[in-house]
């Protein structure tokens, strides 16, 4: 039923009279009864005008003051939130209690000049404390003797008590106003829970700085251009009308933590107790909370597709990355990428790092230099681990193997338990990259927790993408925001992402990894077969690429071997060698035989199929001649 202006008039008039006659019991009613009654009186006089029935609150604010509109907002909104209407009696106990709750909020906000509803500040605890004190006061008053002398004593005590309450309230308000001003500047101040040491930090997620009252006062004067006293507690206040902060009222921080699950610096524990989180999100990582971002075709996805050798490998890497992005819970599966260091470095340094690690200390790079100083505590508080280009000596080092174990092992408890019991909780994913197949010695004990892929070279990827290197770098950078959005919404198969990638002919096979001694032996056999022109040694190539095999026979007949085909020959004979390109393979050959030291770029060796060739020093082995 629509409320008429006459009903509004009667409602506000009656409410104004009841307030003026002290019918309601609320905080500071003796102070605000007349003010509120006069404002309500002005309100009901204006309601009869039809032309302001609409937009009434705006009208009040323009004609009178922000205070008038504020009182109207608070009282009417709280009443109607409780399904109150203009036809209900204001004097029945239930309705009277609702009005008194509204007047309590009005009273406190008038005290602090906070003419906003709903208030940005939460005064519920202050109201609750004052009402409790008032209730106690009423209890004692009812039980006192009605003797006039005692009654006067009560009145005197009441006035003293009310004065005390108002002073305490004023102290809290001054402290809160100054603290809020400091927060608005990006600063924060707190005390620790153990010994009440005072700390501050200059901007969000910066390292904390231990301080004292004098130093902090001087620093705040520089920042705020006003002098702020620092007191230990409310009883220490020497200048009640000055600006001050009270240490006992500051937030209490129990401990520093590293928790990527929480995108906040000061997660609340209970009873004004907080943790300080040292992990700060990148803007890209925040996409995990925003699933409404538009997406378009991803260049980075295309890069990962060309980095891998088939669609199954591509899908695995995308699942592995997206699952971690969405839940920030490590899979306990190491992603091992063997091949061109330039290609894997693009994935690590230009994709994974910018998305997950805002600060370099969140990302742990483990190489030969790092292994000299790294230990169990070094791997604490990281979002990603990257074992990069470990030498053969360090690959065989038991310290490297133990480090992998610490990263991959399952967490036995929750992050909260780890925090409270000073345990290390491993959040981060592990990726291992190497240009050589020398990783097995330190991965062998955890090979059932490793997904191993051989990747393509960066030159091959760029060629397949039909793009120049500079444009490639720009496209990677430009696509980061879009790719993060894709990871956030990716339809993850969490079972697939948290298990080792298993397909037929998994590379490299767990039981067929070529160790260094075997590799050296295979290379030497390869060289001997070339120098002796042992075509039967290369018979396997015929089954894979007949044209390449025929070219090899032609070159052997001319006492030559094509330089650019050497790695291709070897890779077809030993596909699990771990060598990924002709350049690296030629370096190995040059170290083993002078045949490959010929400067054929200067020699006038006749080319075949536009390929430069080494001249073979022929061993006279009759059974091998063609």
Describe this structure in words.
By secondary structure, the protein is of the alpha/beta class. It is built from 25 helices and 15 strands. The strands form four sheets. Strands 3-2-1-6-8-7 form a six-stranded mixed beta sheet. A hairpin with a 2-residue loop joins β7 (268-270) and β8. α6 (124-143) runs antiparallel to α7 (148-184), α9 crosses α17 (458-465) and α10 crosses α19 (480-489). The longest helix is centred in the N-terminal third of the chain and has 37 residues, at 148-184. The chain starts with a helix and ends in an 11-residue tail after the last strand. The model is unreliable at 503-513 and 619-626 (pLDDT under 50).
Q: Keyphrases for this structure?
A:
single chain; 626 residues; alpha/beta; six-stranded mixed beta sheet; five-stranded parallel beta sheet; 25 helices; elongated; disordered C terminus
Major beta sheet, specifics?
A: 6 strands, mixed
Gyration radius over CA: 39 Å
Continuous helix count: 25
**Strand residue content:** 5-15%
Read across the widest sheet, the strand sequence of neighbours is 3-2-1-6-8-7
The chain-level mean pLDDT equals: 81
Structural class determined from secondary elements: alpha/beta
Report the strand count.
15
Poorly predicted regions: 503-513, 619-626
Overall spatial form: elongated
Distance between the termini: 109 Å
Helix content: 40-55%
